[in-house]
Amino acid sequence: TVFGQVKRQGRYLFKAGMTVKDLLNEAQGLSDRADADAAELRRGNVSVIIHLSQEGAKTLEAEDTLTVLEK
After folding, report:
1. pLDDT tens-digit profile of 25-70?
2. What is the pTM of this model?
3. From CA 60, how far away is CA 6, in angstroms rounded?
4. ∠ CA 57-22-25 to the nearest 5 degrees?
């Protein structure tokens, strides 16, 4: 699931080995208002800020939620 500053927010079919970058591609990329390097990754009850430029290859889990932050 991806929310925030992407072109197409929503829930996408999870595929084993899916990365943050893959999910962003499914959402048709970042919007013009997106902070190109900051997103919140929620896994269970834990939320962390990730740097997209450094952690785009991070592997996701089925119930993860990514929220791309605004500039």
Report:
1. 999 999 999 999 999 999 999 999 999 999 999 999 999 999 999 9
2. 0.95
3. 17
4. 130
